[in-house]
Amino acid sequence: METGLTYAATLTVDNAHSAIAMGSGDMPVLATPAMVALMENAAMMAVASHLPEGATTVGGQISTSHLRPSAMDAVVTATATLEKVEGKKLFFRVEARQGETLIGEGTHLRFIVDREKFMVKL
Length: 122
Description:
Blueprint: E1 6-12, H1 19-22, H2 32-48, E2 55-66, E3 75-86, E4 89-98, E5 101-114, H3 115-120
Antiparallel strand pairs: 1-3, 2-5, 3-4, 4-5
């Protein structure tokens, strides 16, 4: 797996992504948990096609700031870039933008796991 892999995931903010629906606030704006999930999805997708058969990635840690609000119907894009690989640990830089405006940024750690072995642990 090589550093530099990147992926951009996009969503249009709707009621399902709102702070009200997610229980993280009481205003009709993009919920922080929805932004974080979009960032995680971008990281997962950045490396998905580079994994061995039967492998996937799981989130281990995310550190992020939600800097600006996004209203209903706003288009938000989260981009993840693989910055470092240490064995099964994958370190990403993540950011979310509404157009050119940075609305969130941070780092994300994912682990490469074997799907079957992982599910046995449940």
